[in-house]
């Protein structure tokens, strides 16, 4: 990811160049970047503050690597505990606005993909609660509940949202990383952000997010067992220690989020989900 500051006859502007260089992402770049470009076009003019698409080269025909060029949005990623409650409320309202984006049949993104399955769940070594993990795995081993589909960001969490201001002036200024956009249950996006909040700020923060979403006007599965399925499907995708998200979080200053801390929070979060919904 590079920032490009340009100057020309029309003045100055700043853009962001996103390039895929790791072999895994290069193999999937055409699908990922083509999808993100289509989504950014769709979101133009909506109340979702997404970057504006400038150009895309998903097969590296013109660039050294598969790349997408987009506008630079104001704001910063904020992961610290200060103002976390206020940010969570803004996150819930912004997510609801994304779910309400009108999408016709021709624009509908692909069906969601599950990021966990029973055979791929890695339990924490030395856990003192093996029965809890098995119970969670047994839930996602069942068939997915029926759902009313909507437009999903699919990777909506604090690391992909930009904020400006403080106090009463705190605002969401941007939502980025639209490569995983999908069609599926609102519960799945809510589950993903809830897990992230539980890992970042503690289990209670993760447990409150669905309530914030509903209070903002969102609708989730009416059956608690169905909602529990989506919450566990996401949580187990982070097992055993949420390393995929932990690395960038630590790079942004959350060095306190060690593997031990995240493993403990994830396990406590599973228990809290069963206490409330199961």
Automatic annotation (TrEMBL):
Example of a GO MF term: transferase activity
UniProt xrefs under Pfam families: APH
Cross-referenced Gene3D superfamilies: 3.90.1200.10
Aminoglycoside phosphotransferase domain boundaries: 13-222
Protease found in the keyword field: no
Keyword tags: Transferase
Superkingdom of origin: Bacteria
InterPro entries: AGP_Transferase, Aminoglycoside_PTrfase, Kinase-like_dom_sf
Protein name (database record): Aminoglycoside phosphotransferase family protein
């Amino acid at each position: 990811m590079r920032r490009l500051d340009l100057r020309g006859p029309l003045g100055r502007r700043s853009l962001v160049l996103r390039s895929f260089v790791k072999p895994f992402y290069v193999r999937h770049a055409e699908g990922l970047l083509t999808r993100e470009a289509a989504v950014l076009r769709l979101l133009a003019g909506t109340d979702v503050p997404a970057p504006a698409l400038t150009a895309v080269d998903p097969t590296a025909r013109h660039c050294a690597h598969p790349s997408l060029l987009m506008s630079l949005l104001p704001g910063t990623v904020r992961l610290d505990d200060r103002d976390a409650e206020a940010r969570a409320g803004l996150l819930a309202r912004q997510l609801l606005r994304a779910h309400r984006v009108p999408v016709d049949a021709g624009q509908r993104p692909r069906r969601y993909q599950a990021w966990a399955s029973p055979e791929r769940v890695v339990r924490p070594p030395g856990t003192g609660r093996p029965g809890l993990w098995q119970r969670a795995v047994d839930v996602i081993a069942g068939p997915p509940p029926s759902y009313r589909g909507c437009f999903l960001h699919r990777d909506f969490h604090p690391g992909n949202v930009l904020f400006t201001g403080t106090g009463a002036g705190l605002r969401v200024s941007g939502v980025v990383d639209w490569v995983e956009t999908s069609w599926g249950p609102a519960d799945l996006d809510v589950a993903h952000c809830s897990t992230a909040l539980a890992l970042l700020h503690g289990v209670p923060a993760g447990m409150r997010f669905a309530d914030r979403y509903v209070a903002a006007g969102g609708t989730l599965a009416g059956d608690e067992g169905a909602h529990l399925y989506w919450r566990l499907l996401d949580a187990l995708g982070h097992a055993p220690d949420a390393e995929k998200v932990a690395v960038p979080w630590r790079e942004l200053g959350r060095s306190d989020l060690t593997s031990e801390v995240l493993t403990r929070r994830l396990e406590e979060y599973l228990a809290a989900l069963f206490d409330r919904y199961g």
